[in-house]
Amino acid sequence: QARLVQSGGGLVRSGGSLSLSCTVPRRTFSTHHMGWFRLAPGKEREFVAGISSSGGNSYYADSVKGRFTISKTTANYTVNLQMNSLMPEDTAVYYCGATLTNLVSIPNWKTYAYWGQGTQVTVSS
Asked: How far apart are CA 119 and CA 96, in angstroms?
């Protein structure tokens, strides 16, 4: 059972920036694709961004493309989500996850085996 530990997030005004990090066990970091999802009240879990185990491929939801960037930092086994130009509709609890699925299924949360504890991101207008 891999334990993913999230950090970052918080409260920011519209147009501001926040970053999230997810610390991943070394073995999981090298073998699993990683994704960020978010869950807002009254909404379904939504794919935000994903990155392949090699770090060579990244994927984004249309709603965040051009504003968010996902990356991997090998030195400390973290997966990062840099969020710029934040909008109130980005408000949600964000979760990182790890999956062994194929690349095209990275946006499918049902394929994920491990999850972080969740981090609140609140964007005020």
From this structure: 9
